[in-house]
TrEMBL record:
CDD domains: AdoMet_MTases (cd02440). It comes from the Bacteria. InterPro entries: SAM-dependent_MTases_sf (IPR029063). This is Class I SAM-dependent methyltransferase. Gene3D superfamilies: Vaccinia Virus protein VP39.
Length: 163
């Protein structure tokens, strides 16, 4: 690997919620993660579930899958002047480009680049009100569907080790 970061120099790579949707290729991301990790190095992901990313958050009466679950070459393009940061300020750069990546695509890309999956857990919660009008916040600060939370995963954690 060339560039600013030295290959095989990291013990841990962490990817947090909302990072993968900005990447057009999960394959290139997995290749980069594997290249950065030392043998025995670990990857930890806490991410919004691809089913959640495929759900329209603007429909508050029920769940509606309207966006792609699987990665596509062309991005989803949104124009919105709000931010997830708790503020009344509006953003000036309002256009975003986003991509979804299915669970199978993520796992397969990591396996293809020499990573061994050591854990994968799907969760019924996320740390923000992802579907306004359909969620309640628990004492742990995590948001869950207010009706039948077992209907869909909202986030996941994945752990892997570089072979």
């Amino acid at each position: 690997m060339t560039g600013v970061l030295t290959a095989e120099s990291f013990d841990l790579v962490y990817t947090g919620i909302g990072a993968l949707c900005w990447l057009p290729s999960i394959e290139r991301w997995a290749e980069t993660v594997a290249a950065l990790l030392k043998p025995g190095g670990r990857l930890f992901i806490r991410e919004g579930h691809p089913v959640l990313w495929a759900t329209d958050e603007d429909i508050s009466d029920s769940l509606h899958i309207v966006y792609p679950y699987f990665e596509r070459d062309e991005p989803l393009v949104f124009d919105d002047d709000t931010t997830y940061v708790d503020t009344d300020q509006r953003v000036t750069a309002t256009t975003t480009h986003e991509w979804n990546h299915g669970m199978g695509e993520i796992v397969t890309a990591l396996l293809r680049h020499g990573m061994e999956i050591t854990g994968l857990v799907e969760h019924q919660s996320v740390p923000w009100e992802a579907l306004p009008g359909q969620m309640v916040c628990g004492e742990d600060g995590e948001w869950r569907l207010d009706r039948e939370p077992w209907r869909m995963p909202l986030s996941y954690t994945l752990q892997a080790v570089k072979r």
